[in-house]
Amino acid sequence: MKKASIVILYPYYMLFMRYSILVLFLFSYLPLLILTHNFPLFVEESLFFHLLLNNVKYYIDSEIMILIKINNYMNI
């Protein structure tokens, strides 16, 4: 029963992560662009965006590992 609840909550958790990534992008990267008046044609080419994506990917991977550990702990 507990294992099923984790599986059901997991997609909602990932959806929340996607919205938080969007909010983080809007409040960190766009003001930087407005202040510097430097609007690149391809946002992916900027170093700041690459660092942001790498950090977000690391946090998502670590949270997935935590969920797997919780799931294994409840099975024991």
How would you describe what is shown here?
The chain is an all-alpha fold and 76 residues long. It has one domain (2-75). Helices cover 84% and strands 0% of the residues. The chain is built from two helices and no strands. Helix 1 runs antiparallel to helix 2. The radius of gyration is 17 Å and the shape is elongated. The two termini are 13 Å apart.
Give keywords:
0% strand, mainly alpha, elongated, single chain, 76 residues
The residue-averaged pLDDT reads: 59
- Provide the succession of SSEs: HH
Distance between the termini: 13 Å
Largest sheet entry: none
Radius of gyration: 17 Å
Total number of beta strands: 0
Shape: elongated
Structural class: mainly alpha
The structural domain count equals: 1
Strand content: under 5%
Low-confidence stretches: none
State the helix count. Answer: 2
Helix coverage percent: over 70%
Could you provide a short overview of the structure?
By secondary structure, the chain is mainly alpha-helical. It contains two helices and no strands. The chain has one domain.
Please outline the helices and strands.
Layout: H1 2-36, H2 47-75
Helix pairs in contact: 1-2
